[in-house]
Design goal:
Elements: H1 8-16, E1 20-23, H2 33-49, E2 52-57, H3 67-80, E3 89-90, H4 95-107, E4 111-114, H5 118-130, H6 146-154, E5 160-163, E6 170-175, E7 179-184, E8 192-195, H7 208-218, E9 223-227, H8 231-243, E10 250-254, E11 257-258, H9 274-280, H10 284-293, H11 308-311, E12 325-326, H12 329-342, H13 345-358, H14 366-376, H15 385-394, H16 401-408, H17 410-423, H18 433-446, H19 451-463, H20 471-479, H21 483-491
The structure holds glutamic acid (GLU).
Length: about 500
C-alpha cells in the first residue's frame, strides 16, 4: 500500500490549528474583574491545549485610552500569574491596515458612504419609536446615485462608512459554551457603521467590529473567548469574516458576573478592579482561584481550592455554565483565608513586611517577624488584617473597656507587680516559653489566685484587651523589645 505523504499546504494547515487565543482589553479603565476572568479562561484554555495566549491593547478610543491603564492591565495580569506569549499588539498602530480593509470593502461594493446627519438619524429613530418598532438604521443611503452623493458632499456633509447587512441573511455558529447560535440579519440594526465620520475623500477612524476582525485574523486567533455581552458583535463579525474571505475563528461566550442582587457587576458595587482587590488584601492565588470558579464548575473529584497552573490540565468549556455567575464575597473570603493559612511564615512575612514598613514598623529580626506572622496568620482573612493584628506588637495599644475592668480588680495589680519583679531577673531577648509558663504558675501560687486571673490580667496589661492570639507566644514576642515590662509598669 502506498503511504500518502501530506503536501506542504496540508502541513501548514495543521500548524495553523495550534490554539491561539487573546485578551483584547480597552485601556479606558483599570483591569476589571470581568476582563480578568475572561483573561483567565483564555489562558487556561491555551495552557490546556498547549497553545498561545496573546494580548491586544484596543486603544483606538484615543480620548478615553490612557497609558496608566495599559500599565494597570499588565500589572494586574502579572499579579494574577497570567503571562502572555508574544509582545502585545497595539491596535492603534494598525490603523492603516484597518483602513486598507475598509477600502477593499468599498471597492467590492460591500460597504458604502452614508451621509445621513445626526438630526436625521435622531428623527428616524423617533419615528420608529412612535411606531413601536425597534430602533435600527433604515439603510436609506445604501443605493445613492453618484449625483446624490455629490450633492451631499457639496452640502458639506461628512459621511460614515457602513457595511451592508442583508436582512435575510442567516448567521450561525457553534459556540463552545452556548451550543448552536443563530441570528438573522434584520436583528442586527441595519447596515453597520465601520468607520467614523470623515470627509468623503478619506476614511475615518475604523470602528470596533471591523478592527477586531482585522486584528484577530492577522494574529491568527483560532478561538475568540469573551463575555456574552459580545454575542451580537459576533454575529456582525462573522459577516465581515465572510465578506473578506477570512477564516472564521471558533467562539466561546462566557457568562456575565452578577452582584448579589442579580445585576451586572459594575462600579456601583464598589470594588471591581483587580488592583482594588489587591489593595484590600486579597491574594493573587485566591483571586485567580475564585475567578475561575465564576462560571466554571470543577469536574467531579476535583477540589474547589486549586492553583491555576494545576487546574489548567482539566479546564474545558464543557464545564463553563451558560447561566450568569453570582459574585460571592463569602466564598472569596474563605478561599483567601485558606491561601493565607496554607502559607509558610516566610511567604506570609514577604507579603506583610512592605505593609509593616509603610506603617514605620521595623522587624528586629526576620525570625521575630516569622514568629509574629505564624501567630497572627491563622486568624487572618485578608492580608491587610495582618496590619491590625500586628499593630499591638509594634505600638502601645490603648486600654479597652474589657481590659480596664480586668485591671481594676484588686488582685490584678498584686499579680502584675509580682510578675514585673520576677521579670527583672530575666534576660528579655532570650525570654522563652518555659520561662513564661513558669512565671504564670509562680504568680498563681504566690498570689493565691486562679491561673485564669493571672492570664487575663497579664493580657490586659500587655494588650489593653482580653482577646487576642496565644498569650505565651505574644508575650515572648513583646519581651524581645522589653515592651512587656513597660506595658505592665504603666498599669500598676
Ligand atoms: N475591547 C473589547 C472589550 O474590552 C474586546 C472585546 C473582544 O474580546 O473582542 O470588550
Amino acid at each position: 500500500m502506498r503511504v500518502r505523504i501530506p503536501s506542504v499546504p496540508y502541513l501548514n494547515k495543521l500548524r495553523a490549528l495550534k490554539v491561539r487565543v487573546r485578551l483584547a482589553p480597552s485601556p479606558t479603565g483599570t483591569l476589571h474583574l470581568g476582563t480578568a476572568r475572561t483573561a483567565l479562561f483564555n489562558w487556561l484554555f491555551a495552557k490546556k491545549e498547549g497553545g498561545s495566549f496573546l494580548l491586544r491593547i484596543e486603544d483606538t478610543d484615543i480620548e478615553r485610552s490612557q497609558e496608566k491603564y495599559i500599565k494597570n492591565i499588565y500589572q494586574g495580569l502579572n499579579w494574577l500569574g497570567i503571562n502572555w506569549d508574544e509582545s502585545p499588539v497595539i491596535q492603534s498602530e494598525r490603523v492603516n491596515e484597518h483602513k486598507k480593509i475598509i477600502k477593499t470593502l468599498l471597492s467590492k461594493k460591500l460597504a458604502y458612504r452614508c451621509y445621513a446627519t445626526e438630526p436625521e438619524l435622531d428623527e428616524m429613530r423617533e419615528t420608529q419609536k412612535r411606531n413601536g418598532e425597534a430602533p435600527r438604521y433604515d439603510n436609506r443611503h445604501r443605493d445613492l446615485s453618484p449625483e446624490q452623493e455629490l450633492e451631499f458632499i457639496k452640502q458639506g456633509r461628512e459621511p460614515v462608512i457602513r457595511f451592508i447587512i442583508n436582512d435575510q441573511k442567516l448567521i450561525s455558529w457553534n459556540d463552545l459554551v452556548r451550543g448552536k447560535m443563530s441570528w438573522i440579519g434584520k436583528d442586527l440594526g441595519g447596515d453597520m457603521v465601520i468607520s467614523r465620520r470623515a470627509p468623503a475623500d478619506s476614511i475615518g477612524d475604523p470602528l470596533y467590529n471591523l478592527v477586531v476582525v482585522a486584528d484577530d485574523s492577522t494574529m491568527k486567533i483560532t478561538h475568540v473567548i469573551r463575555g456574552e455581552d459580545h454575542i451580537s458583535n459576533t454575529a456582525k463579525q462573522i459577516l465581515l469574516y465572510e465578506a473578506l474571505n477570512l477564516n472564521i475563528p471558533i467562539f466561546a461566550h462566557t457568562p456575565l458576573i452578577l452582584n448579589s442582587e442579580g445585576k451586572k457587576l459594575s462600579k456601583r458595587d464598589g470594588v471591581t478592579s483587580i488592583s482594588e482587590f489587591k489593595e484590600m488584601g486579597y491574594t493573587p492565588e485566591a483571586m485567580a482561584n475564585y475567578m475561575t470558579l465564576l462560571g466554571w464548575s470543577v469536574p467531579e473529584g476535583v477540589n474547589e481550592r486549586f492553583k491555576i497552573s494545576e487546574i489548567s490540565k482539566v479546564f474545558s468549556f464543557e464545564k463553563v455554565n451558560k447561566a450568569s455567575a453570582k459574585f460571592d464575597w463569602d466564598k472569596l473570603n474563605w478561599l483567601n483565608s485558606q491561601v493565607i493559612h496554607e502559607m509558610s511564615p516566610i511567604n506570609l512575612l514577604d507579603r506583610l513586611e512592605p505593609l509593616f514598613k509603610n506603617n514605620g514598623w521595623e522587624l528586629p529580626t526576620q525570625e521575630w517577624g516569622q514568629h509574629l506572622v505564624a501567630l497572627i496568620g491563622p486568624s487572618m482573612t485578608l492580608i491587610n488584617d495582618g496590619i491590625d493584628q500586628a499593630k499591638p506588637f509594634f505600638e502601645e495599644p490603648s486600654i479597652k473597656e474589657d481590659g480596664k475592668k480586668q485591671l481594676e480588680k484588686k488582685e490584678a495589680k498584686i499579680i502584675l507587680k509580682f510578675i514585673l519583679e520576677e521579670l527583672t531577673k530575666i534576660n528579655a531577648p532570650t525570654f522563652n516559653e518555659n520561662q513564661a509558663i513558669g512565671l504564670i504558675n509562680q504568680a498563681t501560687k504566690s498570689c493565691e489566685v486562679k491561673k485564669g486571673l493571672v492570664m487575663k490580667s497579664l493580657r490586659a496589661s500587655l494588650f489593653g484587651t482580653l482577646s487576642g492570639p496565644d498569650l505565651i507566644q505574644s508575650w515572648i514576642l513583646l519581651s524581645r523589645f522589653s515592651k512587656d515590662r513597660s506595658r505592665i509598669r504603666r498599669v500598676i
